[in-house]
Amino acid sequence: MSVIPFQVALWIELLAAGLGGLQGALFAAGEKHRRIDLLGVIVIGLAVSLGGSLLRDVVLNQPPVVIWKNWYLVVAGGAAVLGMVLQPLLARVHWLITVLDAVVMGLFGAIAASKALSLGVGAAGALVVGVIGAIGGGMLRDLILSRPISFLRVGTLYAVAAGAGVATLIVLVALGTPIVMAGLAGLVVTTVVRLGAVRFGWTFPEQRALTPRRAKGAEAA
């Protein structure tokens, strides 16, 4: 079955890129001990904003759209600088940034997964590409700053939320649902799971080794 990539208006994608730049700047502001300069803020903003799209296209062996189209870099970089300047104000509306972040995750996940499907990638591969598109920016940010990769640690289910939304899209497309409806459904699932995890503290159990139970006789001895 032929699949058309999930597409939204350019201004929505640029808005999402700008939000990523703002998030990168806010994150950089919280790393005061690293003494990040203006260039560093811009780099982190670009990584958070465009990293997922860049990794998506590299994995799919496609020309990176964020490089070939100038507006992505300009908007993301400008938003990062703006975020650094307005950091005290933006920190007060962190809840709004969290909501928008969840929506952007769902949006980029849907775009990435549907692009993979349109190129003939199988369902499992499209799931991986979709998750990369959704959370790749955070991965690049952590690598640049030599931090532990956030989604691999006990936290608020970034990858799970992205995976749930992408899986929803893939299943709906397989059932013949139009890509617009499937993409919107995936976006909603990602947003709900992400915000639910933040609101209620949902996490996966921390890994631990299984240890054999001691016999009662051995305990008494």
The succession of helices and strands, N to C, reads: HHHHHHHHHH
Radius of gyration: 19 Å
Q: In whole angstroms, how far apart are the ends?
A: 67 Å
Class inferred from helices and paired strands? mainly alpha
The geometry reads as: globular
Spans of at least 5 consecutive residues with low confidence: none
Quaternary organization: single chain
Q: How many beta strands in the DSSP annotation?
A: 0
Strand content: under 5%
Count of runs of 4 or more consecutive helical residues? 10
- Give the biggest sheet: none
Amount of helix: over 70%
In round numbers, the mean pLDDT is 85
Keywords: Cell membrane, Membrane, Transmembrane, Transmembrane helix
Protein name: TRIC cation channel family protein
Organism: Paractinoplanes aksuensis
Family: Belongs to the UPF0126 family.
Describe the structure.
Its main location: membrane. InterPro entries: Gly_transporter. It holds the Pfam family Gly_transporter. It is found in: Cell membrane. The chain has 221 residues and is mainly alpha-helical. The protein has helices spanning 10-29, 38-59, 65-68, 70-85, 87-90, 94-118, 123-144, 158-174, 179-200, 216-220. The chain starts with 9 loop residues before the first helix and ends with a helix. The mean pLDDT is 85.
Q: What are its keywords?
A:
single chain; 221 residues; mainly alpha; 10 helices; 71% helix; transmembrane; membrane; cell membrane; TRIC cation channel family protein
Brief summary:
This protein is 71% helix and 0% strand. The chain has 10 helices and no strands. The longest helix has 25 residues, at 94-118.
